[in-house]
Specification:
single chain, mainly alpha, Rossmann fold, 2 domains, two-stranded parallel ribbon, about 5% strand
């Protein structure tokens, strides 16, 4: 479960709207997909209970507070680019 929590936090920071633990049935996966298609957020109840998280606020995240440039940097980090590569792509200086 610890690894799932870590992956969940990364996914949520990137704006993921649905997350299902791999041991759940296809019915649960279908429920999640339908919720996301309806512009809702849906996360596995077992995971949200573990995190002691209110699912009504599951879509609230720190990304909403970032500037466009900061979001772009987060996206590139998520795609596993190095600081040097990101600096080159965005025409900014790399901080040591």
């Amino acid at each position: 479960m610890h690894n799932e929590v870590s992956i969940f936090h990364r996914a949520k920071a990137l704006g993921v709207k649905g997350y299902v633990l791999k041991e759940f049935s296809t019915d649960v996966l279908e429920t999640c997909i339908k919720a996301v298609l309806n512009n809702e957020t849906w996360f596995s109840p077992e995971l949200t209970a573990k995190l002691n998280m209110n699912t009504d606020h599951a879509g609230d995240n720190l990304l909403d507070k970032l500037t466009f440039a900061e979001k772009k940097i987060v996206e590139l980090i998520g795609r596993q680019h190095t600081s040097k590569e990101i600096a080159g792509m965005l025409f900014i200086s790399e901080k040591p």
